[in-house]
Amino acid sequence: MSDRTIPADGIGMHLYTMREALADDYAGTLKRLAEIGYRTVGVSGRFGHSAAEIRSFADDAGLRIVLEHVGYNRLADDWDGALADVQALGGKWIVVPSLPTELHTPEGFREAAAAFTVAGRAAREAGLQLLFHNHGHDFAEVDGQVLFDILLDEVEPELLGFELDLYWVVNGGKDPVDYFRDHPGRFPALHVKDMAADGSFEDVGAGRLDFPAMFALAERGGVEQWLVEHDAPADPWVTAARSYRSLAEMRY
User: Fold this and answer.
1) Stretch 53-75: mean pLDDT
2) Which DSSP string do the residues of the chain spell out, in sequence order?
3) Has the keyword Protein transport been applied to this entry (predicted)?
4) Which end of the chain is more exposed for a tag (fewer CB within 10 A), N or C?
5) Which whole-number Å values give the CA distances from 23 to 36, 49, 65, 159, in the listed order?
């Protein structure tokens, strides 16, 4: 471990964590996140607001939107519109958060890889990059083949990157360090989500994941954004403050 710290403008909040607060007061929630210290956010859910409105809320709060989660079905249903919305948000990445259950087979992942190749090319032409966000089941091994690795191997790096969810990698029995080392530059964004002793979700720094060991190879992995996430926070504001402090003070 060295004395490296995460760049201040690399610490963000994935807004799924704050969904209850956003539903009540989107603009006010963004301002409060900025007051905690966050510089960036990933959008997940609009709560009735347009992309332009959310961009204005972020601008007013002094936050930069770096990405938006967009359902897999949008690849075939108005992908151009989805790309235009991420452009309007000011984002850099358009993220597919999961694959439909029926695609959770090697054949399904190959089908997704082909779709991502086409969608990734369109994203690149729009000045964006397509990313895929993983869950634990994406690391299932079928006939000696890890499903997630099909996407890594079959889509060109410039057409598909990954928003690596560190909790779900470990939940799936893999080590993020191996992915950073073996696939340099493929992981521009992270979901930093900690794991409690019983395997449930925990605030960053309060669980058992060895983030400094993971982040030691983050540069090789191409990481630009460390986005806090907690899927089921008891109090999202406590989670937001604790997790920000942990990342801001972390040495790796």
Assistant:
1) 98
2) --S----GGGEEEEGGGGHHHHHH-HHHHHHHHHHHT--EEEE---TT--HHHHHHHHHHHT-EEEEEE--GGGGTS-HHHHHHHHHHHT-SEEEE----GGG-SHHHHHHHHHHHHHHHHHHHHTT-EEEEE--GGGG-EETTEEHHHHHHHHS-TTT-EEEEEHHHHHHTT--HHHHHHHSTT---EEEE-EE-TTSSEE-TTSSS--HHHHHTTHHHHT--EEEE--SS-SSHHHHHHHHHHHHHH---
3) no
4) N
5) 19, 10, 18, 33
How many Cβ atoms from other residues are within 10 Å of residue 127's Cβ? 10
Two tokens, residue 188: 């521009």
Task: Tell me which CATH homologous superfamily contains domain 8-249.
Answer: Divalent-metal-dependent TIM barrel enzymes (3.20.20.150)
Nearest alpha carbon to residue 230 among 176, 189, 194, 197: 194
Cα separation of the two ends of the chain: 5
Is this model's pTM higher than 0.90 or not? yes
Angle (CA) 52 14 136, round 5°: 130
Average pLDDT for residues 133-159, to the nearest whole number?
Answer: 97
